[in-house]
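Workshop exercise sheet. Pairs work together: one partner reads the sequence aloud, the other fills in the structure field after running the prediction. Swap roles for the next sheet.
Pair: D.N. / O.F.
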Amino acid sequence: MAEKIIIIGSGPAGLSAAVYAAREGFEPLVIAGSAGGGQLELTTVVENFPAFPEGIMGPELVSKMKTQAEKFGTRFVYDDLSDIDISSRPFKAVAGGRSYEAESIIIATGAKAKTLGIESENNFIGRGVSTCGTCDGPFFKNKNVIVVGGGDTAMEDANFITKFAESVTIVHRRNEFKASKIMQEKIFSNSKIKIMWDSEIIEILGAEKVNAVKLRNTKSGEITQMAIDGVFIAIGHSPNTEVFRGKFKLDEAGYLVTSEEVLTETEGIYVAGDVSDKVYRQAVTASASGVKCALRAREYLLDLNYRKEREGKN
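Structure field:
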């Protein structure tokens, strides 16, 4: 028998959808992925999620959401989605070598931050290295930090972090930014921001936390070392949409394209969180979109059941 709702993804978007769908009695099945939890699993203290005034560790927040979803009847499969078939109904999702059928699907596979690709950055995630300026900027009060990147995200992060940090140095591997003109003007007029052109980080140094970086000049090859308290990597995100290519509409960056925030072109399939959101990328906004998907799925399933009853009577 087909599931009423399958949710693909187990970050705040997927888990919030699960809580709402489960409370409606749909007993959703969550294809959580082999890792599970999304980007919050790599986050330390979360201070901007409502109801946690003292902050909460990212993995703990995920765990509480999961427990709440299970309380109402959500089930979890910890396998990665390998295929999806939306050509006929019920829809089919394949994970862990097994095929699951569903009347409705909520896609909440999220996105992953692009990184520098150097081994040392992984050693300091949550200990001075961050991929979210708006999330972690407040932890660097009166500190000296680096923001890596040259686009709008890097400019926005740098400006935001100056509210807390003593200084912000933007490290960019080229000699000009690709950010919009207005964003560049904000950077150039901010006295707290310095710019290192034609430079790239080749190693992040520290003991318990980041305390320095090694930099290479992309033109001369000269290597220097700079004392620093934190490194914010702002070079973009990659949505987890590989398995959806050719089956759903994607934009030029690979994000799922939606209408009315959460709708796809296929009735009964909805999208929540960072897999379609390249603007906000916050746990709370992902959570909200998961709720919207669950409510849309509820409406769809009730209508579908009504139609089936009408057809049965005729």
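Discussion prompt: The first strand starts at residue 3 and ends at 8. What would you look at next?
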